[in-house]
Amino acid sequence: MTQGKLPVANKNTSDSLSGKSLVSPGPPSYEEATAGTSSPCYNDVEMLTENNWDDCNIRRVFIRKVYSILMVQLLVTLVIVALFTFCDPVKEYIQNNPGWYWASYAVFFVTYLTLSCCSAPRRQFPWNFILLVIFTLSLSYMTGMLSSFYNTKSVVLCLGITVAVCLLVTVFSFQTKMDVTSYQGVLFIFCMVMFLSGVVLAIVLPFQYVPWLDSIYAVLGAILFTMFLAFDTQLLMGNKRYAMSPEEYVFATLSIYLDIIYIFTFFLQIFGRKPE
After folding, report:
1. How many CA atoms lie within 13 A of 241 on its CB side?
2. Could you tell me the sign of the dihedral formed by the alpha carbons of 72, 104, 251, 125, in that order?
3. How far apart are CA 22 and CA 150, in angstroms?
4. Could you give the residue ranges of the DSSP H alpha helices within the chain?
5. pLDDT per position in the chain (276 positions), as tens?
6. What's the sign of the alpha-carbon dihedral 83, 72, 273, 202?
7. Got the DSSP string for 42-69?
8. From CA 227, how far away is CA 185, in angstroms rounded?
9. 243 in helix, strand or coil?
């Protein structure tokens, strides 16, 4: 009797095992499927998920918004530079009143720190746009005043070179497979070298020890901010190692605009000529 029951028990056990093997496991949840695949966010406060940046509409709206604001900023700067360069009464007034330059520099510095270091003002409408407008006007005034000390033809030449360089860098950043965002350490070291060189330059230039040192510093500065332009452009794209949050369109616009203005001012130091 016992021997007759053993095959029945084995059969039940094998049936239960085969029944369990036929049941396929359930599909993973969205959190399990996307865990560990999101790209780091540039802000380190909010992480971008892969799903957000795979949505082409979100990316296109973000990039379109940034470049729309940037075009308005550059247009305002171009108008002010042209006014300060071609209008002789305005040129004479701003050159004879340097106090406005230092006032605009103070406004520029305060608004830049506010927009860069405080996330609440740059994300809260309309304060982010108000601060961005003040920042743009102050930096445009500084750029226009610097341009007024150079020959009109050299200013136009530097504007053309800046436009060409920025277009080439932007196209390169969008088309290349090279991940510029992974070279943060190189840019940081380059910035430290430029900072120390600027301190030495401020001490050496008044004594005219090395007259060509100013030109070398301007060349290095133009190279540095051209690299920063490629870095910020790829952060804007979001398909590299590091990405910028879609909510940070003001900060993205601020970064790219500042890179372009610095490139222009360094080109002025390289190619600009003083009026005779």
Report:
1. 9
2. negative
3. 82
4. 2-22, 30-34, 50-54, 56-86, 88-96, 99-117, 119-123, 127-148, 152-175, 184-204, 213-237, 249-271
5. 444 444 444 444 444 444 444 444 555 554 454 444 444 444 443 433 343 444 667 778 888 889 999 999 999 999 999 999 888 888 888 988 888 999 999 999 999 998 888 878 888 888 888 999 999 999 999 999 999 888 888 889 999 999 999 999 999 888 888 888 888 888 888 888 888 888 877 777 666 666 677 788 888 899 999 999 999 888 888 766 777 777 788 888 999 999 999 999 999 988 877 766
6. positive
7. TTSSSPPPHHHHH-HHHHHHHHHHHHHH
8. 12
9. strand
Task: Assess whether the previous peptide bond of 28 is cis (omega < 30° from 0).
Answer: no
**Token pair for residue 120?**
């609440």
Structure tokens at 68: 């729309």
pTM: 0.75
Instruction: Return the sign of the alpha-carbon dihedral for residues 88, 107, 259, 204.
Output: positive
Furthest C-alpha separation in the chain? 121
CB 39 within 8 A of CB 244: no
Closest by CA to 266, choosing from 115, 165, 188, is: 165
Q: How many CB atoms lie within 10 A of CB 18?
A: 9
**Amino acid identity, position 114:** T
Burial (Cβ within 10 Å: 0-12, 13-18, ≥19) of residue 32: exposed
**DSSP class of 6:** H
